């Protein structure tokens, strides 16, 4: 934990303090930012207050009194709920604005981790609760130099696997056929060979299944892949090493020649993706702050101009970190209005899609990394449908 940087960030935002709280590992963000072990056995509530200036204060249950001993600051203990309330009220007495893992109206569910009862309790002390969203992004979503290197290492592996997967699909179709599930398992084996890991297996989807953004090929229901099929590959992975971060892309192709409709939809999605990338690049070049919702607006406007708005049913992109869906700003003005700033040394996907029910779906996904005053796509960029 970098206490000095946290306190400087609180003063910059004019927040009086940041209140961390957990019970039964409900808030993984706290463990990450504070540097606490995620294997800590937590059966009682703990609290940790970091003031904008001064010394932090801990509040722990007496039977788990050592849980926060690795953190700086003084310590209070409680057993009864009355002691908990009295101690917490006293800890917060000097402060008016209290940052917590809270999101007004739960607009950013990644941040809205504190239960409603605890929010009510803190408010009963006369405190104004503010969202820690931008603070979390700064201390959770900004990558170190080593993490950036791990992203590029994952990119090299995944990009080569995508190329090889399209070739493998073609080879198998020519030699008698294969299934979505078979190719998914082939990719999983390629991950193992390349020292890559992932939270979930990749999406391999053909034809109408590609129109389901979160389709999961299963052995008993997986579609066979044959000549003429439209194929979508959504692949995410990271290197098998501590603190590694993800690389996450989606490509599409056709076994044979694409139809005019497939070409048209691909071109619309590709150009919408590029509009989103351009929006971020222009903002960073101009040294202008930009929020995630603005990128979503750029891609969505392009798809709407093609008369396809109703078929773009998800946000434009998500933060990327040690989990494939990270805790920084999402590119979103659909599911939420993400007003969090896109900060330097952070990475996110831009992945608009158009999904035609019963036909096919096109998604084109790249990763954008912001650093050194610019924003750049980190991997290969698909410009045309792959002819398999």
Strands in their spatial order, largest beta sheet: 4-3-2-1-5-6
Order of helices and strands: HEHEEEHEHEHHEHEEEEEHHEEEEEEE
Report the principal-axis shape: elongated
* Class by alpha and beta content: alpha+beta
Q: What fraction, in percent, of the residue positions are helical?
A: 25-40%
State the CATH superfamily name of the largest domain.
Answer: Creatinase/methionine aminopeptidase superfamily
Mean pLDDT: 95
Number of domains: 2
What's the end-to-end separation, in Å?
49 Å
Strand coverage percent? 15-25%
The largest β sheet comes out as: 6 strands, mixed
Quote the CATH topology of the largest domain: Creatine Amidinohydrolase
Which architecture of the largest domain does the CATH hierarchy give at level 2?
A: Alpha-Beta Complex
What is the C-alpha radius of gyration, as a whole number of Å? 23 Å
Q: List low-pLDDT spans.
A: none
What is the total tally of β strands? 19
CATH top level of the largest domain? Alpha Beta
Number of helices: 9
Descriptive account of the structure:
It is built from 9 helices and 19 strands. It has 388 residues and is of the alpha+beta class. The protein folds into 2 domains: 3-140, Creatine Amidinohydrolase, Chain A, domain 1; 143-387, Creatinase/methionine aminopeptidase superfamily (Creatine Amidinohydrolase, Alpha-Beta Complex). The strands form 5 sheets. Strands 4-3-2-1-5-6 form a 6-stranded mixed sheet. Helix 8 packs antiparallel against helix 9. The longest helix has 30 residues, at 145-174. It is elongated, with a radius of gyration of 23 Å.
């Amino acid at each position: 934990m970098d206490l000095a940087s946290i306190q400087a960030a609180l003063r910059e935002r004019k927040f009086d303090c940041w209140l961390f709280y957990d019970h039964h590992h409900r808030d993984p963000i706290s463990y990450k930012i504070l540097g606490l072990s995620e294997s800590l056995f937590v059966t009682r509530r703990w609290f940790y207050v970091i003031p904008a200036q001064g010394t932090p204060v801990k509040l722990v249950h007496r039977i788990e009194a050592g849980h926060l001993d690795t953190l700086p600051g003084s310590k209070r203990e409680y057993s009864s709920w009355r002691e908990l309330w009295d101690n917490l009220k006293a800890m917060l007495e000097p402060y008016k604005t209290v940052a917590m893992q809270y999101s007004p109206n739960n607009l950013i569910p990644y941040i809205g981790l504190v239960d409603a009862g605890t929010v009510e309790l803190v408010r009963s002390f006369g405190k104004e609760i503010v969202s820690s969203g931008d603070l979390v992004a700064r201390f959770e979503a900004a990558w170190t130099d080593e993490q950036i290197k791990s992203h590029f290492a994952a990119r090299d592996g995944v990009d080569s696997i995508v190329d090889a997967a399209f070739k493998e699909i073609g080879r198998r179709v020519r030699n008698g056929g294969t299934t979505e599930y078979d190719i998914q398992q082939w990719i999983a084996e390629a991950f193992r060979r390349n020292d890559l890991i992932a939270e979930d297996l990749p999406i391999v989807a053909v034809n109408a299944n590609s129109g389901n953004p979160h389709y999961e090929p299963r052995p008993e229901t997986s579609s066979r892949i044959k000549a003429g099929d439209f194929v979508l590959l959504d692949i995410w992975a990271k290197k098998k090493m501590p603190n590694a971060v993800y690389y996450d892309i989606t490509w599409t192709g056709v076994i044979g020649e694409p139809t005019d409709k497939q070409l048209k939809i691909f071109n619309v999605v590709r150009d919408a993706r590029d509009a989103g990338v351009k929006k971020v690049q222009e903002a960073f070049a101009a040294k202008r702050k930009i929020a995630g919702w603005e990128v979503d607006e750029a891609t969505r406007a392009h798809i709407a101009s093609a008369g396809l708005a109703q078929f773009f049913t998800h946000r434009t992109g998500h933060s990327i970190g040690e989990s494939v869906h990270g805790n920084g700003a999402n590119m979103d003005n659909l599911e939420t209005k993400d007003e969090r700033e896109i900060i330097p040394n952070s990475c996110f996907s831009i992945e608009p899609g158009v999904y035609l029910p019963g036909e096919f779906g096109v998604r084109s996904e790249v990763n954008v990394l912001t650093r050194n005053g610019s924003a750049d796509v980190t991997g290969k960029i698909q410009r045309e449908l792959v002819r398999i």
